[in-house]
């Protein structure tokens, strides 16, 4: 059986395992002293047995000192011990969890007992050691995922068997060290074999005891003395209990979150603790990768070693902090100057100029920006305006100046802080009287300089203009004033031409300049003779046939008509243009003319080729030959009554009269617009039950076209197609009659899923012969197709029934077998394929 278990475990060991080291398993064999020839059971105990799924190793000893006898079961089931090499001092030990889930045992648990016979002589000793051959040491625990196994570190604590003590006592010492620094959970257990009574005495750091197992021990040396009943020493030993070094965080550093990933990290150094050590920041224990790729925030850290010893710390990961780049405020430089921009110390620089240097020098105005990147990949940027001063000197001394004889030129340099003229003067304004080039250098409040120059020339001599003597003109007449040849002209009227035409009395002045810019002037006075002459022959006019027109000029000294007449008045009877020139007593003259045209007789012309319409259409009525039009419209179907081309939209044939007028008469025309009459129309709306067919109808056409929709008709060009809509639908039809007119109409097909919603349920009849409500009648019943009617008395007997009720003249009239039924309450059931109506029926007499 042991060999079988060992073979099965060997197969499992070769399954895939993770290389992640997560914990340490300690297996311990005790130190013991036995008498030669005696038998001893060595307990194999464990610490850190946490979710262990399999283990294998070998144990060796000196066969001249002890001989393997047997194995006794401990507190772990299915431990297999292969003893086929025990004669040579080797055991193969293996175990696996048959369920593959891993087992956890308390520290100090004895997993098995090995029984040996002490065959050596007193003074002999042998280590009982955990070795890697012939069966290789392999320990695994269960991983997080099914089928995953994680390799575990193995910490062997070898035992030592000494042959001594002729007293015959056998003592196995099983110490358990303190698990964590500062704890008091150490333990020493004794397995004592002795055939007589004995006593145990312990001494240690502030400690005494007489128990075979002592617990709650701190670190230190514990001295053991076992005595017989006479207090003779049977066995003495000193056992060292140790404690691990405390877990101490010696350094904890953090890295702020990167601007690229948004994540930061922490790193630490520590001393003490037993490997493997886990770190937990709230996501469960893990290795140091727990401290990588952390979001910004505060973290509490718990550090745990293989013994479960813990310490805690805390840290915070700062969020990304973009660089605070500051290029400063606006820089003002003068032309030709240079300024330097320095953003600070970073990893990279990207200037708007394309430069990647940490410092740039600028001499041109503009907006400059830089984007920098720090060690965390965070970027920051800033921009700065470099500009010339707003009041940058722009010296403008004006255009070249011409000095006329005896003149001085005033030169003004503008408003600045300082001035230096080429003459040596330092004032804003200077006076010069000699031709030449004058230069000026100025400095503004920003210390920037500007320069300018002006050319002062000799203007030369100028001859004054001569506008002639003062003049008198007739009202309405004009005179041309001429100055002669100069470079520029400036009349008192604002004109700048060489000549000026004037027709109004007044004083007219002129200033001229020559090529050198020198000026001269002259003035002339224009007077008017008498009042203005007013001649008006009136507006242009027409002469109708046989008419004459009298033309009168008014009172003047002389008259000269274009007809040759010199009279004040003339009479004309022919069309043409008649002109007249008159003079007054001062000899001033004026003229006027009038155009006389021949008026034509009014004759209206109708320009329409036809005046026929289909119903619903409109037509433009168009007449011509007059200046104005007035229409008479008794049908109120014209768009306007005072234009030549109104739109007519009559419903039926209509007559219209139009009167056209002009200066030489009027004319009247009567028009009739014929509207075709049509009999084209669609049939009545209808109602059907679900799944039935509707008969559509249209009349009065020579062709038909039914518009398709979700439920098309059987034949779109038929006057009587059929349709089977699933719900209520309107069908549109276009009908063309023999006159070519198109009439559009529609048919509604109502699909009644519930007859009771479309048929009025009758609940009373009064069969008294007054022809009012004498019989049971249902409106719209024919729209639901085949039906069946049954009438019952109050005992449920059928007193009337008929299939396809109201398909003929037969009606229920309150009789049964020819006899009148008594007044009272009855019931009927009206059934259709799509539903039924149940209703009480009262017969009143």
UniProtKB/TrEMBL annotation:
Alphabetized UniProt keyword annotations: Signal
InterPro entries attached to this UniProt entry: CBM2/CBM3_carb-bd_dom_sf (IPR008965), Cohesin_dom (IPR002102), T9SS_type_B (IPR026341)
CDD domains in UniProt: Type_II_cohesin
One Pfam short name: CHU_C
Stretches assigned to the Cohesin domain: 26-133
GO molecular function annotations of the record: carbohydrate binding
Keyword Glycoprotein: no
Signal peptide coordinates: 1-22
Transmembrane segments: none
Gene Ontology BP terms: polysaccharide catabolic process
Entry-linked NCBIfam families: Bac_Flav_CTERM
The protein's name: Cohesin domain-containing protein
Source species of the chain: Flavilitoribacter nigricans (strain ATCC 23147 / DSM 23189 / NBRC 102662 / NCIMB 1420 / SS-2) (Lewinella nigricans)
């Amino acid at each position: 059986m042991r060999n079988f278990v060992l073979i099965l475990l060997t197969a499992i060991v070769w399954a895939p395992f993770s290389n992640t080291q997560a914990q340490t398993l300690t297996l311990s064999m005790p130190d013991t002293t036995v008498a030669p020839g005696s038998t001893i059971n060595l307990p194999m105990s464990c610490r850190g047995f946490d979710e262990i799924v399999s283990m294998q190793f070998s144990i060796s000893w000196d066969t001249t000192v002890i001989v393997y006898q047997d194995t006794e079961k401990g507190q772990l089931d299915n431990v297999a011990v292969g003893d086929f090499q025990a004669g040579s001092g080797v055991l193969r030990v293996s175990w696996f969890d048959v369920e593959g889930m891993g087992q956890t045992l308390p520290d100090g648990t004895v997993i098995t007992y090995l029984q040996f016979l002490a065959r050596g002589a007193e003074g002999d000793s042998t280590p009982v050691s955990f070795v890697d051959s012939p069966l290789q040491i392999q320990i695994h625990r269960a991983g997080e995922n099914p089928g995953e196994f994680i390799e575990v570190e193995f910490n062997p604590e070898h035992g030592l068997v000494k042959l001594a003590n002729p007293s015959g006592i056998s003592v196995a010492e099983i110490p358990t060290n303190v698990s964590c620094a500062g704890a008091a959970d150490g333990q020493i257990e004794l397995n004592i074999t002795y055939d007589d009574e004995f006593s145990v005495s312990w001494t240690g750091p502030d400690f005494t005891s007489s128990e075979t197992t002592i617990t709650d021990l701190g670190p230190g040396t514990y001295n053991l003395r076992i005595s017989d009943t006479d207090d003779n020493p049977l066995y003495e030993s000193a056992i060292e209990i140790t404690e691990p070094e405390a877990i101490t965080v010696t350094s904890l550093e953090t890295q702020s979150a990167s601007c690229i990933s948004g994540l930061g990290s922490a790193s630490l150094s520590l001393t003490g603790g037993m490997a493997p050590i886990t770190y937990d920041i709230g996501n469960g224990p893990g290795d140091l990768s727990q401290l990588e790729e952390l979001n910004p925030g505060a973290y509490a850290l718990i550090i745990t070693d293989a013994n479960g010893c813990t310490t805690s710390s805390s840290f915070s990961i700062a969020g990304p902090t973009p660089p605070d780049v500051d290029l400063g405020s606006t820089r003002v430089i003068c032309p030709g100057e240079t300024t330097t921009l320095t953003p600070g110390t970073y990893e990279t620089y990207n200037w708007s100029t394309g430069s990647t240097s940490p410092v740039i020098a600028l001499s041109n105005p503009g907006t400059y920006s830089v984007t920098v990147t720090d060690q965390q990949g965070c970027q920051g940027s800033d921009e700065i305006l470099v500009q010339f001063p707003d009041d940058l000197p722009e010296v403008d001394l004006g255009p070249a100046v011409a000095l006329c004889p005896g003149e001085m030129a005033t030169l003004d340099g503008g408003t600045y802080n300082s001035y230096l003229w080429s003459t040596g003067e330092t004032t804003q304004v200077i006076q010069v009287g000699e031709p030449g080039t004058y230069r000026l250098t100025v400095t503004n409040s920003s210390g920037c300089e500007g320069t300018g120059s002006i050319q002062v020339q000799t203007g030369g001599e100028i001859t004054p203009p001569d506008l002639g003597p003062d003049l008198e003109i007739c009202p309405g007449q004009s005179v041309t004033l001429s100055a002669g040849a100069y470079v520029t002209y400036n009349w008192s009227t604002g004109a700048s031409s060489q000549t000026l035409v004037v027709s109004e009395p007044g004083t007219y002045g002129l200033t001229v300049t020559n090529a050198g810019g020198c000026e001269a002037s002259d003035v002339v006075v224009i007077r008017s003779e008498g009042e203005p002459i007013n001649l008006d022959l009136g507006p242009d006019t027409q002469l109708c046939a046989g008419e004459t027109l009298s033309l009168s000029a008014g009172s003047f000294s002389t008259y000269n008509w274009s007809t040759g007449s010199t009279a004040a008045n003339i009479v004309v009877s022919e069309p043409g243009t008649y002109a007249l020139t008159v003079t007054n007593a001062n000899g001033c003259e004026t003229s006027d003319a009038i155009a006389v045209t021949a008026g034509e007789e009014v004759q209206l012309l109708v320009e329409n080729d036809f005046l026929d319409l289909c119903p619903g259409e409109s037509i433009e009525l168009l007449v011509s030959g007059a200046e104005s039009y007035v229409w008479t419209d008794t049908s109120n179907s014209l768009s306007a009554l005072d234009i030549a081309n109104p739109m007519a939209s009559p419903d039926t044939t209509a007559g219209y009269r139009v009167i056209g007028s002009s200066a030489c008469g009027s004319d009247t025309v009567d028009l009739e617009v014929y509207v075709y009459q049509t009999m084209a129309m669609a049939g009545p709306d209808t109602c059907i039950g679900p799944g039935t067919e509707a008969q559509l109808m249209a009349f009065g056409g020579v062709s038909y076209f039914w518009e398709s929709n979700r439920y098309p008709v059987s034949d779109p060009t038929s006057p009587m197609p059929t349709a089977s809509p699933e719900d209520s639908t309107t069908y549109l039809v276009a009908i063309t009659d023999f006159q070519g007119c198109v009439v559009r109409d529609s048919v509604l097909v109502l699909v009644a899923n519930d007859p009771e919603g479309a048929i009025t349920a009758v609940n009373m009849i009064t069969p008294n012969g007054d022809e009012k409500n004498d019989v049971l009648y249902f409106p719209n019943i024919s729209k639901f197709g085949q039906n069946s009617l049954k009438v019952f008395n109050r005992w449920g007997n059928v007193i009337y029934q008929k299939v396809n009720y109201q398909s003929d003249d037969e009606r229920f009239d309150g009789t049964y077998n020819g006899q009148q039924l008594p007044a009272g309450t009855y019931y009927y059931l009206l059934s259709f394929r799509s539903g039924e109506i149940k209703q009480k029926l009262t017969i009143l007499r």
